[in-house]
């Protein structure tokens, strides 16, 4: 039933010093739909792909506002994210009540990191099964942090988590140098372009399945959901992934990378209702700094 | 008058009569009845402060009295918190030491754990923190017997000055004073800065002069004061602090005053 | 590890027939995979440095600090599971704070090391927890001058003049042994620290790394544990690079002879 005798709980090290239960928790993130975050000098943006369990059902919330100066996007177990977001709201409110000061993004991210770590060291607990992107603005400007169930938190200029997020990450890695100096609209567009690249072959961004949030220096956190997303999709223009476009219109100039082609095959097999099952993972090395111990299935 | 720390926050005995605590004695000892501080022991007197164009000047003398005895003559009642905030305290000196050496030290150490200071700790934050602390303590009927002034700047580098007392009462203004100073010094300081706008046209020298004059009056008139005081100037650039001694004292007027000392008639 | 798979390594707090606690040994494996950390105790203070492996170019440079302060006068650097290290640091801060509550003075570094050694040890005692996957180096100054300690997952700790842990610890140790630590000043030692981390990184040269360095000096930093100023770090890195290239040249020359 178990892959080996060291993966039953989070209080057992493998002979290589790995904690499999924590690594499996990281896999739970990849079961969730993709979320992308990115920052410029003045703004931080979150975009995410929502999923509905059935056609007539509503879409699962992917972006949650925490305080007027920051919010999160999630991938993985939504109930776990709700526990963490409630905790962050408490932290944020207590900062305002006790100090009359909006909490620094790093401080609130560290607080959930510490909470998550405890779950990886005590028997009878399980690690959180959710990854978060925390985007916000404080006195030092815009920030984007990634949180992982291992308790690892890292600050990024751009990050993507969830199913097929590798494609979005590839986009970010190719374009992040531009982000710094673009305006709000342009930054959101970059975010949507990254998210678009992570779409399954038969999907496209719609006002129903896309969430956008933005926060800036002197601008409160704003969440665009439903109809209000359409404006941004119109600005984006093309709402299908570059892969699909490449297939349908072979003449398109946009290049198809080798890695994305590989994904297309695996995703095609997985089918749309179970999307993400075999998708690529999040960034390597949550626990081990070398990033070598990770079970990277990409 | 309600200017001595023992009287702070109490219904005045001369108006309402002494508090009748007889019903308390009916409570069985150990039945969960608890009595906390009823009065301060070693006390410090007034703290006064004035806002000016680009900062705040704040002063407090260095005496800690034991009743009417001038018990400790060199007690620092101004505390620099971080780089740009000064807290001044009157009232119970052991409670002040708890606030200065324990509460505020911890606060500063915690703050130093984020050296990148994504949101620096400024005077309004220190003030909010202290006001929450004092209010929480009084709500537990176990007050920290102090009156505090917090001087510094807000995030737009505008001078900040506010007060909180043992009841958790908070207010701010261009000139503030606690204790005896609230009665005797404040009217003098308000001549210089009657309102917020006025303080924006006051120079450091003018503000300093007013504070020094007020400290002099307080020394002559407040029997719980001493002729040495600490004075500090807070600007966005930082804190400058010095010790002053009242020179050229003249007690000639005392000769004509009768009714105290050996001459009782 | 001959006893792997015999069942004695599946739970913490269990001895094998030959008297080993395997889970603690496995925790040390996690340490050996982490980026190299070092601590140098010199004449006028202590330096802590760490090799931060850059896992993505999207990471914000200079953010994501790995060396943390405890009270004002001490710092902790660690190799291994980073979240474990964070928790360890937070416990150390609580210890320092509780000491202050009682004595109204900073905790001595040796007491801090002792308390944290005890804390780590407690996580080897019960099957309901796992040991810390980190080795921590604690440096600071107190009434006895500069102090340096290293705490292992087992909870054992020793005082050091120079300490190294993590992936490149062997290379780092042999570099440290070349130094006359008792005679070095902080200003000189930051250069050596930069070199030691660079040398320790040689084995994983294909990956980029970022050097993070803090210090606490009696005079230099007024007894406070703070990051080494950026200009000084850059200068030290430059010196280290030159120095390493020089060493290589010498070796090449010898080879030619």
Automatic annotation (TrEMBL), chain A:
<dbReference type="GO" id="GO:0005634">
    <property type="term" value="C:nucleus"/>
</dbReference>
<feature type="domain" description="Proteasome alpha-type subunits">
    <location>
        <begin position="6"/>
        <end position="28"/>
    </location>
</feature>
<dbReference type="InterPro" id="IPR035144">
    <property type="entry name" value="Proteasome_alpha1"/>
</dbReference>
<keyword id="KW-0378">Hydrolase</keyword>
<dbReference type="Pfam" id="PF00227">
    <property type="entry name" value="Proteasome"/>
</dbReference>
<dbReference type="GO" id="GO:0019773">
    <property type="term" value="C:proteasome core complex, alpha-subunit complex"/>
</dbReference>
<feature type="region of interest" description="Disordered">
    <location>
        <begin position="240"/>
        <end position="298"/>
    </location>
</feature>
<feature type="compositionally biased region" description="Low complexity">
    <location>
        <begin position="252"/>
        <end position="276"/>
    </location>
</feature>
<keyword id="KW-0539">Nucleus</keyword>
<comment type="similarity">
    <text>Belongs to the peptidase T1A family.</text>
</comment>
<dbReference type="Pfam" id="PF10584">
    <property type="entry name" value="Proteasome_A_N"/>
</dbReference>
<keyword id="KW-0963">Cytoplasm</keyword>
<dbReference type="InterPro" id="IPR001353">
    <property type="entry name" value="Proteasome_sua/b"/>
</dbReference>
<dbReference type="GO" id="GO:0016787">
    <property type="term" value="F:hydrolase activity"/>
</dbReference>
<dbReference type="GO" id="GO:0005737">
    <property type="term" value="C:cytoplasm"/>
</dbReference>
Automatic annotation (TrEMBL), chain B:
<dbReference type="InterPro" id="IPR016295">
    <property type="entry name" value="Proteasome_beta4"/>
</dbReference>
<dbReference type="Pfam" id="PF00227">
    <property type="entry name" value="Proteasome"/>
</dbReference>
<dbReference type="GO" id="GO:0019774">
    <property type="term" value="C:proteasome core complex, beta-subunit complex"/>
</dbReference>
<dbReference type="InterPro" id="IPR029055">
    <property type="entry name" value="Ntn_hydrolases_N"/>
</dbReference>
<keyword id="KW-0647">Proteasome</keyword>
<comment type="function">
    <text>Non-catalytic component of the proteasome.</text>
</comment>
<dbReference type="GO" id="GO:0005634">
    <property type="term" value="C:nucleus"/>
</dbReference>
<dbReference type="GO" id="GO:0051603">
    <property type="term" value="P:proteolysis involved in protein catabolic process"/>
</dbReference>
<dbReference type="GO" id="GO:0005737">
    <property type="term" value="C:cytoplasm"/>
</dbReference>
<keyword id="KW-0963">Cytoplasm</keyword>
<dbReference type="InterPro" id="IPR023333">
    <property type="entry name" value="Proteasome_suB-type"/>
</dbReference>
<comment type="similarity">
    <text>Belongs to the peptidase T1B family.</text>
</comment>
<dbReference type="InterPro" id="IPR001353">
    <property type="entry name" value="Proteasome_sua/b"/>
</dbReference>
<protein>
    <recommendedName>
        <fullName>Proteasome subunit beta</fullName>
    </recommendedName>
</protein>
<dbReference type="InterPro" id="IPR016050">
    <property type="entry name" value="Proteasome_bsu_CS"/>
</dbReference>
UniProtKB/TrEMBL annotation, chain C:
<dbReference type="Pfam" id="PF10584">
    <property type="entry name" value="Proteasome_A_N"/>
</dbReference>
<dbReference type="Pfam" id="PF00227">
    <property type="entry name" value="Proteasome"/>
</dbReference>
<dbReference type="GO" id="GO:0006511">
    <property type="term" value="P:ubiquitin-dependent protein catabolic process"/>
</dbReference>
<keyword id="KW-0378">Hydrolase</keyword>
<keyword id="KW-0963">Cytoplasm</keyword>
<dbReference type="GO" id="GO:0019773">
    <property type="term" value="C:proteasome core complex, alpha-subunit complex"/>
</dbReference>
<dbReference type="InterPro" id="IPR050115">
    <property type="entry name" value="Proteasome_alpha"/>
</dbReference>
<dbReference type="GO" id="GO:0005737">
    <property type="term" value="C:cytoplasm"/>
</dbReference>
<dbReference type="InterPro" id="IPR023332">
    <property type="entry name" value="Proteasome_alpha-type"/>
</dbReference>
<keyword id="KW-0539">Nucleus</keyword>
<comment type="similarity">
    <text>Belongs to the peptidase T1A family.</text>
</comment>
<comment type="subunit">
    <text>The 26S proteasome consists of a 20S proteasome core and two 19S regulatory subunits.</text>
</comment>
<protein>
    <recommendedName>
        <fullName>Proteasome subunit alpha type</fullName>
    </recommendedName>
</protein>
<dbReference type="InterPro" id="IPR001353">
    <property type="entry name" value="Proteasome_sua/b"/>
</dbReference>
<dbReference type="InterPro" id="IPR029055">
    <property type="entry name" value="Ntn_hydrolases_N"/>
</dbReference>
């Amino acid at each position: 039933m178990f892959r080996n005798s060291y993966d039953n709980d989070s209080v057992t090290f493998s002979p290589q010093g790995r904690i499999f239960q924590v690594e499996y928790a990281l896999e739970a993130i990849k079961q969730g739909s993709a979320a992308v975050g990115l920052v410029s000098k003045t703004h931080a943006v979150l975009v995410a792909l929502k999923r509905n369990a059935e056609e007539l059902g509503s879409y699962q919330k992917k972006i949650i506002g925490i305080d007027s100066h920051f919010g999160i996007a999630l991938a993985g177990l939504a109930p776990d994210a709700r526990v963490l977001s409630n905790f962050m709201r408490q932290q944020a409110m207590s900062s305002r009540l006790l100090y009359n000061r909006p909490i620094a993004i790093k401080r609130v991210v560290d607080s959930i990191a510490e909470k998550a770590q405890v779950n990886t060291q005590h028997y009878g607990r399980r690690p959180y099964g959710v990854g978060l992107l925390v985007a916000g603005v404080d006195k030092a400007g815009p920030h984007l942090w990634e949180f992982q169930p291992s308790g690892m938190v890292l600050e990024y200029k751009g990050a993507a988590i969830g199913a097929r997020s590798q494609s979005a990450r590839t986009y970010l890695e190719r374009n992040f140098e531009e982000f710094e100096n673009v305006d709000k609209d342009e930054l959101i567009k970059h975010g949507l372009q990254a998210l678009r690249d992570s779409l399954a072959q038969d999907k496209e961004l719609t006002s129903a399945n896309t969430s956008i949030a933005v926060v800036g220096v002197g601008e409160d956190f704003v969440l665009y959901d439903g109809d209000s997303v359409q404006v941004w999709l119109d600005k984006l223009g093309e709402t299908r992934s570059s892969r699909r476009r490449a297939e349908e219109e072979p003449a398109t100039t946009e290049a198809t990378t080798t890695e994305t082609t590989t994904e297309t095959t695996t995703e095609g097999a997985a089918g749309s209702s179970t999307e993400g099952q075999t998708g690529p993972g999040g960034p390597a090395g949550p626990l081990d700094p070398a990033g070598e111990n990770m079970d990277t299935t990409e | 008058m309600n200017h001595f720390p023992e009287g702070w926050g109490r219904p005045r005995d001369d108006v309402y009569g002494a508090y009748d605590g007889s019903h308390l004695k009916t409570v069985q000892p150990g039945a969960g009845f608890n009595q906390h501080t009823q009065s301060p022991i070693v006390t410090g007197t007034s703290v006064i402060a004035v806002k000016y164009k680009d900062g705040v000047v704040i002063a407090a003398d260095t005496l800690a009295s034991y009743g009417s005895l001038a018990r400790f003559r060199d007690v620092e009642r101004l505390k620099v918190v971080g780089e740009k905030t000064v807290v001044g305290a009157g009232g119970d000196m052991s409670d002040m030491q708890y606030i200065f050496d324990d509460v505020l030290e911890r606060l500063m150490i915690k703050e130093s754990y984020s050296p990148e200071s994504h949101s620096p700790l400024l005077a309004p934050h220190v003030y909010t923190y202290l006001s929450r602390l004092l209010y929480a303590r009084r709500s537990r009927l176990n007050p920290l017997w102090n009156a505090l002034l917090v001087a510094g700047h807000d995030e737009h580098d505008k001078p900040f000055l506010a007060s909180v007392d043992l009841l958790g009462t908070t207010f701010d203004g261009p000139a503030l004073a606690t204790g005896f100073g609230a009665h005797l010094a404040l009217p003098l300081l308000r001549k210089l800065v009657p309102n917020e706008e006025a303080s924006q046209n006051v120079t450091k020298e003018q503000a300093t002069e007013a504070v020094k004059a007020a400290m002099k009056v307080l020394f002559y008139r407040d029997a719980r004061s001493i002729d040495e005081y600490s004075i500090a100037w807070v600007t966005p650039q930082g804190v400058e602090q010095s010790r002053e001694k009242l020179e050229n004292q003249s007690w000639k007027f005392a000769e004509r005053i009768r009714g105290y000392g050996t001459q009782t008639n | 590890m001959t006893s792997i798979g015999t069942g004695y390594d599946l739970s913490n707090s269990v001895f094998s027939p030959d008297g080993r606690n395997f889970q603690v040994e496995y925790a040390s494996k996690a340490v050996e995979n982490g980026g190299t950390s070092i601590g140098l105790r010199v004449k006028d203070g202590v330096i802590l440095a760490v090799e931060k492996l850059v896992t993505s170019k999207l990471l914000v440079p200079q953010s994501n600090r790995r060396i943390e302060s405890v009270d004002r006068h001490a710092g902790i650097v660690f190799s291994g599971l980073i979240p474990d290290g964070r928790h360890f640091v937070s416990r150390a801060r609580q210890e320092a704070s509780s000491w202050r509550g009682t004595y109204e003075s900073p905790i001595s570094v040796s007491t801090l090391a002792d308390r944290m050694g005890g804390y780590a040890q407690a996580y080897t005692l019960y099957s309901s927890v796992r040991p810390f996957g980190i080795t921590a180096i604690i440096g600071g100054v107190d009434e006895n001058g500069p102090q340096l300690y290293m705490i292992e997952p087992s909870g054992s700790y020793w005082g050091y003049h120079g300490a190294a842990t993590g992936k490149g610890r062997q290379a780092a140790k042999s570099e440290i042994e070349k130094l006359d630590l008792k005679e070095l000043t902080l200003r000189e030692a930051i250069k050596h620290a930069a070199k030691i981390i660079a040398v320790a990184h040689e084995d994983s040269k294909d990956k980029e790394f970022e050097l993070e360095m803090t210090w606490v000096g009696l005079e230099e930093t007024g007894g406070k544990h703070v990051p080494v100023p950026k200009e000084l770090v850059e200068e030290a890195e430059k010196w280290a690079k030159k120095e390493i290239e020089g060493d290589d040249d010498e070796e090449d020359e010898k080879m030619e002879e």
